[in-house]
Amino acid sequence: MKRLILLVLLAVFLAPTALALDQETALQEQSRALGMEELGRAGEAYTGQDQVSDELDLDTSFRHMAQLGRQAMGGVVKQSVRSCVLLLAVTLLCSLTRGIQAGTGESSGLSVTTLAATLSITAVAVGDVHSLLNQGEEAIFHMKNLGDVLLPTVAMATAASGTPAMAVVKQGATVLFSDFLIRLIHSLLIPLCYAFVAANVAWAALGNDGLKRLGGLLKWMITMLLSGVLLLFVGYLNLSGVISGGADAATVKAAKFTISNLVPVVGGVISDTAETLLAGASVLRNAAGVFGMLAVLGICVVPFLNLGVHYLMYRCTAALAATVSEDGRLTGLIEAIGTAFGLILAMTASCAVLLVVAMVSTVSAVAG
User: Fold this and answer.
1) How does 91-122 read in b/e, with b if 16+ C-beta sit within 10 Å?
2) Which of 93, 278, 289, 343 sits CB 3.0–4.6 Å from 359 for a disulfide?
3) What is the mean pLDDT of each run of 10 residues along the chain (368 residues)?
């Protein structure tokens, strides 16, 4: 009997040491079971590292993103400058032609010069619009593929860290809203963006103010739809997180109390072991969330750079063209095409924001 008591006391006193020595092994097993290796492979091209752990090196990922940006910068600037020089040349040529017409006293009804300039500007810009739309769609496709690996991994880690209800709610909401947003972009917003460009081309060619107002309406619809989806997602995530977080905290506290008090002698040891596993899952959840945010940023570096540079260059070109041309329709068309780039950027950014907000919400969640 004395030996049995002695063995129990030794087990109680030595259990924390044994747990501490084996914690690293347990963390590795949890990482393997939660699919961290698959997540690392999925995000390696965007983060520059394939290890998802608490030793994640942020500097390495940011250097990798900076390198991607530097590699793309030369081609992006060259392409945008080429397009803007051509647009300025067309605008200047149109202005000179109109000046010659005014000097010779030619009548101007529906100006052939303006029509020709509008078609020329459209021919120069349509390639940029189509190329950047494809690049935005490609970035959204990569984010969807990343999310297919990232969201289940984070959800399993969140559930293993003691918040299963929160895991179900947040993964379900993110999958639902991201799928809806991607379908909305492909089926409605991209056609609306093309319609916005077409309406402004028609306004520049014909001078009908109704077409310009139609373009403004299309722009408003795109921005409101994107804003509405994101606001609904953030609002739902916050409200459901409060409810599910409270339920999870109560469940974890009840489980700890039950194990500690109903299991004789070793109940506290079992409770401590469970708490160690919960802590390890929390570490992996946070690592996966941060890794996911870095991967999303890595996906967006080149598209954001390309769209941002083209947006700024077209806006600057419209301002410069206004100094050499008295025809506000041509400069307005160039500015509207720049706005189209901004709309494409907003669509791509919305998908990125949705994933990043989900990861921030998951990482910042604390089990009770």
Assistant:
1) bebbbebbeeeeeeeeeeeebebbeebbebbb
2) 289
3) 36 43 62 78 86 80 90 89 89 79 58 82 88 90 88 77 67 82 91 93 88 93 92 80 45 42 42 45 74 90 92 91 81 92 92 85 59
Residues 52/291, Cβ–Cβ less than 8 Å: yes
Dig out the tokens for 165 from the structure. 């209800």
**Which one-letter DSSP state was computed for residue 186?**
I
Contacts of 140 by beta carbon, 8 Å cutoff, 6+ apart: 182, 185, 347, 348, 351
**CA atoms 246, 252, 255, 258: torsion sign:** negative
The total of other beta-carbon atoms located within 10 Å of residue 242's CB is 10
Q: Are 304 and 346 in contact (CB under 8 A)?
A: no
- In terms of Cα–Cα distance, which of 147, 148, 85 is closest to 121? 85
Residue type, 185: I
Structural contact between residues 310 and 81, judged by C-beta atoms closer than 8 angstroms: no
Please give the DSSP secondary-structure letter assigned to residue 161: T
Domain boundaries, the chain: 71-101+124-364
Side-chain-side CA neighbours of residue 324 (13 Å): 15
Residue that the structure tokens 């809203």 belong to: 177
Reading the block at residue 190, the tokens are 């991209």
Q: Residue 26's closest CA among 210, 340, 276, 242?
A: 276
Placement of tokens 């530097």 in the chain: 70
Residue with tokens 């780039």: 341
Are the beta carbons of 290 and 339 closer than 8 angstroms?
no
